[in-house]
Amino acid sequence: MAPGVTETPAKQETETSGYKKLANGIVLGPDGKPCRTCNDVASLFALSGKKPKSITTTASTLPSDCPPDVEALGRSSWTLLHSITATYPTNPTPQLQSETKTFLSTFGKLYPCWVCAEDFQTWMTRNTPRVSSRGEFGTWMCEAHNAVNEKLGKDVFDCGRWEERWRTGWKDGRCDF
C-alpha cells in the first residue's frame, strides 16, 4: 500500500475490478497504490507530501508528457466525445447507429477511471443513447456531460448551444479562421 494511505475496511468500497475507494476519497488500484487516472494531481501531491519538481508545475498540473490525472482525462475524453457528435451524420444508417451505441457501451467499460466508468454506465442505463441524428446525439451527449458537471458541482451547459460550442463555433466569430 502507498505511504500515507490507510485503509478503513468499514468505510471503503471494494469493486469487482479490484479497485478500492477509501474514506478520504483516494481511489486505489488493484496493486494497492493510488490510481493515477481516478484521482486528481493535487490530491496525489497532498497524499505523498511531495512538491511539484518544476517551478512551472503547480499542484494541479503535471507536465504534458506525464500520464493524465482524472481532470486531464475527463477534459480530453469530453473533447473527443463532443467532437464525435459534431461530425456525426444528420441521418446515420441503422448500422452506424448500432455501432455508435456499441462504442458508447464499450467506452463506458474501458474508461480508465473506474468510478467515472461506473457512473457513465449507470447513467446510460437510465438514459439510453439517442443516436438517430446528429442533433439528438449532440443533445444526449451534452446531457451526459451536464450530469457529470452537476455531480462535480460545476455549471451546466445550455444544451441548446452544443452545436455552436462543438461544431460551428461561437456566433461572435472568435473561432473563425
TrEMBL record:
Top-level EC class: oxidoreductase
Alphabetized InterPro entries for the sequence: ALR/ERV, ERV/ALR_sulphydryl_oxid_sf, ERV/ALR_sulphydryl_oxidase
Name of protein: Sulfhydryl oxidase
SUPFAM superfamilies: FAD-dependent thiol oxidase
Domain ERV/ALR sulfhydryl oxidase positions: 66-166
Reaction equation(s) it catalyzes: 2 R'C(R)SH + O2 = R'C(R)S-S(R)CR' + H2O2
Places the protein is found: Mitochondrion intermembrane space
Cross-referenced PANTHER family: ALR/ERV, FAD-LINKED SULFHYDRYL OXIDASE ALR
GO CC annotation, single: mitochondrial intermembrane space
GO molecular function terms noted in the UniProt entry: flavin adenine dinucleotide binding; flavin-dependent sulfhydryl oxidase activity
